[in-house]
Amino acid sequence: MAVTALHAAATGMKAQDTKLDVLANNLANVNTVGFKRSRVNFEDLLYQIKREPGVFNVQDEPIPHGIQVGLGTAISGTQQMFTQGSVDRTDQPLDILIDGEGFFQVRTIHNGSEVIAYSRAGNFGRNSQGNIVLGNSEGALLEPAINIPNDTIRTSIANDGEISVLQQGSTQLSAIGTIQLARFVNPEGMEQIGQNLWLDNLASGPPIIGNPQQDGLGTIRQGSLEMSNVDPVRELVQLILTQRAFELNSQSIQTADESLQIVANLRR
After folding, report:
1. What is the three-class DSSP state of 72?
2. Fewest Cβ atoms closer than 10 Å to its Cβ: which of 184, 218, 229, 255?
3. In angstroms, rounded to a whole number, what is the distance separating the alpha carbons of residues 92 and 187?
4. Which parts of the chain are beta strand (E)?
5. Do the strands 103-110 and 113-119 form a parallel or antiparallel pair, or are they unpaired?
6. Are 128 and 147 in contact (CB under 8 A)?
7. Contact yes or no for 222/179 (Cβ under 8 A)
8. Residue 264 forms beta bridges with which residues?
């Protein structure tokens, strides 16, 4: 019936509209440090079974095909893609890149409570107390906290995360702490809260914390940043396909409406 077509096409338009929102967010964050793009997964909805496949015909043989009419589509989920982003060499001493698996740990406030959040963004700096903080709008404190002395003239970060400083009047580097990373069994299940941060939950599993280069964690690279993994060309192609799919669904609604109009005119 045309009514079923109207409903199915409407679900298609709604799903494509959601995909458009996700694509727009990906493109908006094409230059966001440590951003991970998302993709939209679709699933078909329930079916009206007008004839079961495999029922027997008059010759007592199973019919190879039934009559099943679908009721449209829906978004089954938005999936985060944690592929490595491009590398931007900055030569800034507190710009840090994770080459491989893992997240930086930072302490921040979420919904009025202090929590440990996770980030792939490595654009760190120092606050007024000399503590290392993430370069987001809140200046989230690195966890565990590492303080750089005021008289530091050079900061060195090794591949295993150990931070050493050269202080005024000294000729040797002194270790002041080690950056610890966290990884997850299912990072795609983490909750995005903005400001380049994620939170763990039941879907992601608890954090597995360790030093870089150990327990499957990546390597630290000083003086570089991991940029967004958004491919603008890919996203623009998907944008065009989404627009065309939306138009096709709107055309289906128009065709179903014309069919209903023809049926209504038969009563005159």
Report:
1. coil
2. 255
3. 28
4. 38-44, 47-51, 67-70, 73-80, 87-89, 96-99, 103-110, 113-119, 124-126, 132-134, 141-142, 152-157, 162-167, 174-178, 181-183, 191-194, 197-199, 208-210, 219-222, 224-226
5. antiparallel
6. no
7. no
8. none
- Report the side by side order of strands in the sheet with 162-167: 152-157, 162-167, 174-178
Per residue in 175-210, pLDDT (tens digit) is: 999 999 999 999 999 999 999 999 999 999 999 999
- Spell out the residues 6+ positions from residue 25 whose beta carbon is closer than 8 angstroms to its own: 38
SS3 26: helix
Q: One-letter amino acid identity for 185?
A: V
Q: Which two tokens stand for residue 184?
A: 């997850």
pTM of the entire predicted model:
0.87
